[in-house]
Design goal:
GO molecular function (chain A): nickel cation binding
CATH class of chain B: Mainly Alpha
Mean pLDDT of chain B: 93
CATH topology of chain B: Urease accessory protein UreF
Helix content of chain B: 55-70%
CATH architecture of chain B: Orthogonal Bundle
Oligomer: heterodimer
Strand content of chain B: under 5%
Number of strands of chain B: 0
Family (chain A): Belongs to the UreD family.
Distance between the termini of chain B: 28 Å
Largest interface: A-B, 33 and 38 residues
InterPro entries (chain A): UreD
Subcellular location (chain A): Cytoplasm
Shape of chain B: globular
Number of strands of chain A: 18
Distance between the termini of chain A: 36 Å
Largest sheet of chain B: none
Keywords (chain A): Chaperone, Cytoplasm, Nickel insertion
Radius of gyration of chain B: 17 Å
Radius of gyration of chain A: 19 Å
């Protein structure tokens, strides 16, 4: 019994229960502020197995602060409750990413859910890029992934979530379980974008054309704070390969690009290409892909 | 999400048309007027992504149209417009301005694409203008700024003494008729086939209203990723008859 716990849970506050009340909590709270004109990580508090690497500045000392979020277990199992909070103060530019895909493992025999909440706050004049690598949901995974973005004043933010259901390479499609993905983006408390995506392979909407249309990969990219959103949309339509699997729109000042298909690589390349188009328009800097994406 | 907004008073009804038996008759006629395709607010110009679904080959005949309509009803209207209409109706009945503003914004923030946002605000503005010309505009509280269609519809139902449940049924009926009119024009779908689809979907409208009235605030939100994609693709569709 002890060995089993040691294997699965490196953090000292892990639950010893094996029923529906079990929760393994991990949280990470990051704060960024301007110091003498440069972005500094002024806070990194963690509980449980969530860490950050030392921030670095591949674009120059006074440019965006890049930070890798690490989750050594590499994925979520039943009962995991992850909370990631990042606050970006005025005049700072931050890029957050992850070194690997996040995995959502099959629920245990009790069907206990996991949850992952990401809360991003950007102050007036701040810029945050939230560019995690994709999430892979194993068959039978059960949980909720919620992302909330709270902006003040003229804060800018670009981010994405790429979600692949099942593992096609291993012929293990996503045929059971339930994942709910939620987004909430507010500016000065006013909701501009609210979305929920319940992913239940046994529900008619999973295969229905009004719903998922049988798509096993989906991506959602948002960008808010663009000076000229319409021009940005035209540039995206010009630069990205046309097709029925993705589309872009601008509503309430929030640019949304959505992909529904079967190809993880297509979804990822689309998001990366869109970022290359949008970044100069949003931040005034060319895209600088984190090296970790290529390792 | 909006924890401050309760739904306890959805069942209350305070008809503003006078007379007892006559009030019910006037309310019924008021509902027929409000959901009539002849209501001059321009609803006929919008397809809510359906025209794009035709173009993509997702909807191509009576059977696939029936599936699309039942899907959009179950995953869209049931979880979005209908329960929010009930909440907005209650907010008008109680003069609860913060709830009116909050639900109006909630609905706008849930609109997936530019065309769906535009449809909602244009229909809202047209209906508000029409009510103003009929001397039926609310005074206290006033309509929220740039109120969406459902918010204004809720007020119209309320001022006409239409019971909330009937208001929801009427809203769902108007949606169905409008979608079928789109299909008759653009698919094209025969008029008899359209009536056969009415027969098929009619019981689902009642079920949708029942379910809409049973949902809690945190269960709300449309789940229509395919429709959202279709609607965004419609922005660049080469040939189109409709504005959404």
């Amino acid at each position: 019994m002890t060995a089993r716990l040691d294997l699965r849970a490196p953090c000292p506050d892990s639950g010893h229960r094996f029923d529906a009340g079990r929760r393994w909590v991990a949280s990470l709270e990051l704060g960024f502020a301007a110091r003498r004109g440069a972005t500094r990580m002024i806070r990194a508090r963690h509980q449980g197995p969530l860490r950050v690497q030392r921030p670095f500045y591949p674009e120059g000392r006074d440019e965006a602060c890049h930070v890798y979020l690490l989750h050594p277990p590499g994925g979520l199992v039943s009962g995991d409750a992850l909370t990631i909070r990042a606050r970006v103060e005025a005049g700072t530019r931050v890029l957050l990413t992850t070194p690997a895909a996040n995995k959502l493992y099959r629920a245990d025999s009790h069907g206990v859910a996991w949850r992952q909440h990401t809360e991003l706050e950007v102050a007036d004049g701040g810029v945050l890029e939230w560019l995690p690598q994709e999430t892979i949901a194993f068959d039978g995974s059960w949980g909720e992934q919620a992302t909330s973005i709270d902006l003040s004043g003229n804060a800018r933010c670009l981010g994405w979530e790429v979600l692949a259901l099942g593992r096609p390479a291993s012929h293990l499609p996503y045929v059971s379980g339930r994942i709910e993905q939620r987004f909430a983006l507010r500016r000065d408390g006013k909701p501009l974008w609210l979305e929920r995506q319940p992913l239940d392979p046994r529900h008619p909407r999973f295969h229905g054309r009004w719903g998922q249309g049988g798509a096993s990969v989906q991506a959602t990219l948002w960008a808010v704070g663009l000076a000229d959103g319409r021009e940005a949309i035209e540039a995206l339509r010009e630069a990205l390969p046309a097709g029925p699997r993705w589309a872009v729109t601008l509503r309430h000042g929030v640019l949304l690009l959505r992909y529904l298909g079967q190809e993880r690589n297509a979804a990822w390349s689309l998001c990366e290409a869109a970022w290359r188009v949008l970044r100069p328009r949003l931040v005034g800097r060319e895209a600088h892909p984190p090296r970790i994406w290529f390792t | 999400m909006h924890r401050g907004i309760t739904t306890t008073s959805i069942g209350t009804l305070m008809p503003t048309e006078s007379g007892s038996g006559q009030g019910d008759d006037l309310a019924l006629l008021g509902l027929l007027q409000l959901v009539s395709p002849a209501l001059p607010i321009g609803a006929f110009a919008f397809s809510q992504g359906l025209e794009s679904a035709f173009e993509l080959g997702w909807v191509s005949d009576e059977a696939s149209l029936g599936d699309w309509l039942e899907g959009v009803l179950a995953d869209g209207l049931t979880r979005c417009e209908l329960p929010v209409l009930a909440r907005l109706y209650a907010a008008w009945a109680e003069g609860d301005e913060p709830a009116l503003v909050a639900w109006d914004r909630w609905l706008a923030a849930n609109r997936e694409t530019a065309e769906l946002v535009a449809e909602d605000s244009r229909l809202g503005a047209s209906l508000a203008r029409l009510l103003g010309s009929l001397g039926l505009a609310p005074d206290a509280p006033e309509l929220p700024a740039e109120a969406g269609h459902v918010t204004v519809f809720a007020w119209a139902a309320r001022v006409r003494g239409i019971a909330p449940r009937q208001a929801l049924l009427g809203f769902a009926w108007a949606w169905l008729e409008n979608q079928l009119a789109v299909a008759c024009k653009a698919l094209p779908l025969g008029h008899t086939a359209a009536q056969q689809l009415v027969e098929r979907v009619r019981p689902a409208l009642v079920h949708a209203v029942d379910e809409a009235l049973s949902l809690g605030d945190d269960e709300l939100g449309p789940a229509l990723p395919g429709l959202a994609l279709a609607s965004a693709l419609h922005e660049t569709q080469y040939s189109r008859l409709f504005r959404s």
